[in-house]
Amino acid sequence: MINYRQLFLSHLAQTSDAPLLLEVVRAAGVKLYKPDGSYCIDVISGISVSNLGHCHEKVVSAIKQQADLYAHLMVYGEVIQAPQLQLANLLLSLLPSKYDNVYFVNSGSEAVEAALKLAKRATGRFEIISCMNAYHGSSTGALSVMGSESFKNAFRPLLPGIKHIEYNSIPDLELITNKTACVIIEPIQGEAGIVVPDNAYLQKLRLKCDEQGVILIFDEIQTGFGRTGRLFGYEHSGVLPDVFLFAKALGAGLPLGAVVGPKVLMNSFSNNPVLGHITTFGGNPLCCAASYAMLKELTDNKSIIASVPEKEVYIRTNLKHPLIKQIKGVGLFLAVVLDKKINLYKLIFEILNEGVLIDFFLFNDNCLRLAPPLIITEEEVAEAIAIILRVLDRHM
Length: 396
Known about the structure:
The protein folds into two domains: 4-55 and 303-393, Alpha-Beta Complex (Aspartate Aminotransferase, domain 1); 58-300, Aspartate Aminotransferase, domain 2 (3-Layer(aba) Sandwich), CATH 3.40.640.10. It has 14 helices and 15 strands. The chain has helices spanning 4-11, 45-48, 57-67, 82-93, 108-123, 140-144, 149-152, 199-212, 263-266, 285-300, 303-306, 308-318, 344-354, 378-393, and strands at 26-28, 31-33, 39-42, 101-105, 127-131, 162-165, 180-185, 215-219, 243-246, 257-261, 324-330, 333-338, 356-357, 359-361, 364-370. Strands 4-10-9-8-7-5-6 form a seven-stranded mixed sheet, sandwiched between helices. Strands 1-2-3-13 form a four-stranded mixed sheet. Helix 4 runs parallel beside helix 10 (285-300) and helix 13 crosses helix 14 (378-393). The N and C termini lie far apart (43 Å).
């Protein structure tokens, strides 16, 4: 009889020629259970998605309750649906008061697409600036602002009018002019290997955008919802954008994204033309119910985010090895910088075979990604670290 591994390789479109091929039958907390009953410790959270871990009881309960009511009624924005409204109200209550409008979408990529359209519509300009080594998604518009030529070349032509600046480079801010519609940037850059900006950089970026009438978009798709030890990544600098983008952890394991901004700006989609941006499944009630449960848990149980800096310190203190040059990042959004002589991809498979699911970064070829669920315990961190160090010892 054909098995799941064969079906996976035969019938699912592949994104690489060397998939992990980890078969998971169930997941709970930070553990992914295989058919033989053994488990892997998840230290990447589905790439910053499962901040409360897998199958959190409150999230699961919310999904089940909503499934008994309805799963889909109508395209987004036409029908009053309680899960959307409850989530929007809670999310906005956690942001400064000037942010009073949410547009729910399906994913981070779609949030980026919507935000780029919004900036063009609101300013009447088409030039867009993003950062080198930035990842904002794989759909055509999001791909256009990706900061890696090797990822884009096979898909040209892409959007016109795209410029790239170096992250953390104040001189590069001079490229922002009155022809620029928007700057899209991460408050902490992810796929470059976790780059934390100087506070002066984001402050000067904000001033430059104000001077030139440019919309500043913060991509908080990876940094949101406690990942960095604060509820949102922008809190580390205090710099406020015009528009926030959220996804990944927002959906608590289900597909959900959001564009958040002032109503005066967000209303641009409602006219000239009407239905300026539409989505069938954006704000799906099941996804919004899961998100609301996640966000309530994060905000009611303050110890979850409060414990993140302590776990960061534990990792930095105990994950030491001659082949580890440094650990970059903040909170549980970390990059373990390795000696370049190590074959990173071989190492990832070896660590997986020993019982830890770990990953790399798109634009940094000598870093391991460490972004475990926020609820990981010290004992689970210690177990994962012991495995990583044991595998590194073989490469000495």
